[in-house]
Amino acid sequence: MTNTTEYLTQGDNSIYAGPDGKVVPVVTRAGLEDTNTAQSGDCVRVSGVSIQHTPATKIWFGQVSNVPGYRSLPHHHGEAETGGYVLRGHGRIYYGENFSEYQDMNAGDWVFVPPFMPHVEANMSVTEELVWLTTRTPENIVVNLDDVADDTLAGYRRA
User: What is the pLDDT of residue 65?
Assistant: First the structure.
């Protein structure tokens, strides 16, 4: 007896077709990621899946990092929902009135940031890099806000 697997498609994904009319997965090779992304201060975003270099239209997926002791500017991501996974390091997300509230995150932690929520992403280590993967829908929207003094962010210190 032979088992046969049949793959059925539902819906029309033809908008993702290449010039030859075929719809195929797109691989962004290591070192060829899009670095022309919206930034906020010392928070560096590198795009792996985005409208800039894949057929994606409803998702942004990339790597975000902060060198030791650095942070983003205050910002929000407009209508985008944001999810993240910490690969390495100790980060803190400041939010709330005058950024007086915060959540810490470490390697293996997942984070969700709601749309339009002003926040600051900080690397709490002065010796180790903070690196996490981030995904957003519909796109990598970054709206930078007025900066705040470092001493308004509880426990934060620059390298």
Answer: 86
Longest Cα–Cα distance of the chain, Å, equals 71
Backbone angles phi, psi at 144, to 5 degrees: -75, 140
Q: How far apart are the first and last CA of the chain?
A: 65
**The 3-state secondary structure of 71-90, one letter per residue:** EECCEECCCCEEEEEEEECE
d(CA 38, CA 3): 49
The rounded distance, in Å, linking the Cα atoms of 16 and 125 is: 42
Q: Which helix (H) or strand (E) holds 111?
A: strand 110-113
Residue 103 is inside which H or E element, if any? strand 101-106
Per-residue confidence in pLDDT tens, the chain, 159 aa: 567 666 566 788 888 888 898 888 888 888 888 777 666 666 778 888 988 888 888 999 999 888 899 999 999 999 999 999 999 999 999 999 999 999 999 999 999 999 999 999 999 999 999 999 999 998 888 899 999 999 999 999 998
* Tokens of residue 153, six digits: 């962010």
DSSP state of 20: T
Q: What pairing do the DSSP bridges indicate for beta strands 81-88 and 60-66?
A: unpaired
